């Protein structure tokens, strides 16, 4: 019973900070085009960074609390999809944080990197909205996505065999290590 209450609490924090990250990153990116926003670009940058860190911490807690709040988390396809989409949201959020930390606050002054940052934040925000919509469908029968003219069928999913999942995990970890070790040296962007 406590797991359900904790899940609702932590999901609210993760959702709120994820949406705040996406909106502030979009506004920081728009600061390159709209002269009124460039004065606030540093504020949007700092807000998006702090909210992304909190979102990154809360998303795994939301997954764990959701697992304990459900009687059969692996047996229902719609919940399996929530886990997969939560992983995507965590990945986009981690990419956003990594880019911001590696390149510094002046990342928004470089068009290509700022566009990539905005895409990462928007991707995380998109998946958080989808996750919340699935949760709303499960608990109260309606969701934010009901305003769309269609609702994707999340009640079925493709489950990969465990060995394929493990190969993909090892390949992903190896790709990250290779990219960090063999990639070019990254320096903070200066003015």
Q: Just give the CATH class.
A: Mainly Alpha
| CA-based shape | globular
- Termini gap: 53 Å
Element-level helix/strand string: HHHHH
Q: Report helical residue fraction.
A: over 70%
Q: Let me know the number of strands.
A: 0
CATH architecture: Up-down Bundle
Structure description:
The protein has 191 residues and is mainly α. It has a single domain (2-156), classed as Four Helix Bundle (Hemerythrin (Met), subunit A) (Up-down Bundle). It has helices spanning 2-30, 41-69, 77-103, 111-139, 162-182. α2 runs antiparallel to α3 and α3 packs antiparallel against α4. The longest helix is centred in the N-terminal third of the chain and has 29 residues, at 2-30. It is globular. The mean pLDDT is 82.
Short description:
It is built from 5 helices and no strands. With 191 residues, the chain is mostly helical. Helix 3 packs antiparallel against helix 4.
Write the layout of secondary structure elements.
Blueprint (H helix, E strand, L loop, with lengths): L1 H29 L10 H29 L7 H27 L7 H29 L22 H21 L9
Helix pairs in contact: 1-2, 1-4, 2-3, 3-4
Output the keywords.
mainly alpha; 71% helix; 191 residues; single chain; Four Helix Bundle (Hemerythrin (Met), subunit A)
